[in-house]
Amino acid sequence: MKITIHNQNFVLHQSGAAFWEEEKILFISDLHLGKIGHFRKHGMAIPEKAVLENFTRLNTVLELFDSKTVIFLGDLFHSKINNEWNFFSDWTKTHSQKIILIEGNHDIISKQYYLDLNIEVYSELIIHDFLLTHHPSEREQLFNFCGHIHPGIKLKGMGRQFLSLSCFFRKPNQMIFPSFGEFTGNFYLIPEENDQIYAITKEEVIEIKR
User: Fold this and answer.
1) Which residue among 49, 123, 129, 206 has its CA within the 20 to 30 Å range from the CA of 163?
2) Domain containing 42 — which CATH number?
3) Which residues pair with 207 in a beta bridge?
4) From the UniProt record, which GO molecular function terms apply (predicted)?
């Protein structure tokens, strides 16, 4: 699905990533690498192959879009270093795109790990009229791209039927990105009058009309 913000074109993908056409930037938020390994370490019965699913999805969107830069909007790695870091390190060496991390609250490992992989790390970044942060922020005359919330929407059907979907949650001067990572969960938001909801299905992103 393609949308326009401040005269710039963005493609919203059902993975939860978004591609800025003019700047050839791919945005991804809340990947939470290492979380599956953390769960497994504490006895949760998650198949080991689930670790590789995040990288499969990453490869899919990178192959789909002609990106020059990948910007992670925070919470790239869930917590302390574990074996999933080795997968990520190997993954970065198979791609030529510049990688930037906007620090999130879960990004607690030393910046040196990222610098060693030629990944640039910032607390926030401004590109043209866009403010890139992890936590939702407001800045006069800037449109904010952010994550952190893991937004979802609940749609009511006939009777007591409900459908729960991840979504891109757009406010007048802000868009909150869905979580890209597996096993990260959603926080269900209630849209206000001027909000726009772009819900994610397995096949596409669709705007929810109210």
Assistant:
1) 49
2) 3.60.21
3) 198
4) hydrolase activity
| Helix runs in the chain, H state only | 35-41, 50-64, 84-92, 111-115
Structure tokens at 57: 């999805």
Bridge partners for 170 per DSSP:
175, 196
Whether 147 shows a pLDDT value over 50: the answer reads yes
* CA 72 vs CA 32, 56, 164, 203: distances in Å: 11, 16, 25, 23
Report how far residue 136's alpha carbon sits from residue 113's, in angstroms, rounded to the nearest whole number.
26
Comparing CA positions, the residue from 64, 128, 109 lying closest to residue 101 is: 109
Length of the chain: 210
How many domains is the chain partitioned into structurally? Answer: 1
Amino acid at 98: K
- pLDDT band at 32; cut points 50, 70, 90: confident
Range of the domain at 79: 2-208
Which of 158, 201, 195, 156 minimizes the C-alpha distance to 175?
195
175 vs 169: CA distance, rounded Å: 6
**CA–CA gap between residue 188 and residue 45 (Å, rounded):** 26
Q: How far is the CA of 31 from the CAs of 34, 105, 143, in angstroms?
A: 9, 13, 22
**Cβ atoms of 200 and 17 closer than 8 Å:** no
